[in-house]
C-alpha cells in the first residue's frame, strides 16, 4: 500500500502555472499564459508562447531542466517494490513449506529486503532533490525572467497561478516511509534465516569455578596452623613440624 501511494502521487502528477504580461501597448498584452507540465518532468520539452511587446510578434520559450531520471527511478522502485510485496504475500500464505525448504526462501527474501531498503533511501533522496529543482524551475517568478518583455520596466509581468505541489510532496514523504518500513522489516526477515538460528546455538558454558590451587598439595593454608611447631608458646612439649619430640623442659634434662 505504501508503494502504491508513492508511485501514484508521483507518476500521476500533472500541474501548471499561469502568467500575465501587460505590455505598454495594451493590444499586445497577454494576461493568461498557461504553462502545463507533468510527470516525468522533462521541462525542457515544455514549450509556451509569450508576447514580446514589440508588435504582434511572439517568442517561443521553454522551461529549463530535465528531472526525469530521478522521478522515473523513484517510480520504478515503487512499482517493483509493490510487485515483490504482492508476490511475497502469495508465497507466505500459500507456499510456506516451499519458502522454508533448505532455508533458500528466507535468505533470498532477506537479501531482496536489504536491497529494496537501500534503493528506497537512494531513490527518495534523489527524488527529493529533483522535486526541489522542479519547484525552482516552475516558479512563476523564475519563468518570467525568461521573457524578453519582462526585461523592460514599461511592461508589467505578474504571476497569476502557481503550480500545486502537494501530491509531489506527499510522494517524497511516502518514499521515506517506505524506506523505514523496509529497513525495519530486515530484522523480521533475518529471524527466518538460518543465520539467526545458528547464532542462537552457543556452546554450553563449561567454565566452572575451580578451587584454589593452594587448597591442594603442599601449600595448604593450614600448614602453619595450630599443628605447627613454632607458632605457640610452650611448643617444646609438642611434636615439631619435622616429627621429632622436643623436651618438655630444661629441668627434666638435668
From TrEMBL:
Q: Which GO terms describe its cellular component?
A: synaptic vesicle membrane
Per the UniProt record, the source organism is Steatornis caripensis (Oilbird)
Give the record's keywords alphabetically: Glycoprotein, Membrane, Transmembrane, Transmembrane helix
Q: Which family does it belong to?
A: Belongs to the synaptophysin/synaptobrevin family.
Ranges for domain MARVEL come to: 1-194
Q: What is this protein called?
A: SYNPR protein
Q: How does it sit in the membrane?
A: Multi-pass membrane protein
* The keyword Flavoprotein belongs to this UniProt entry's keyword annotation: no
Report residue spans for region: Disordered: 198-254
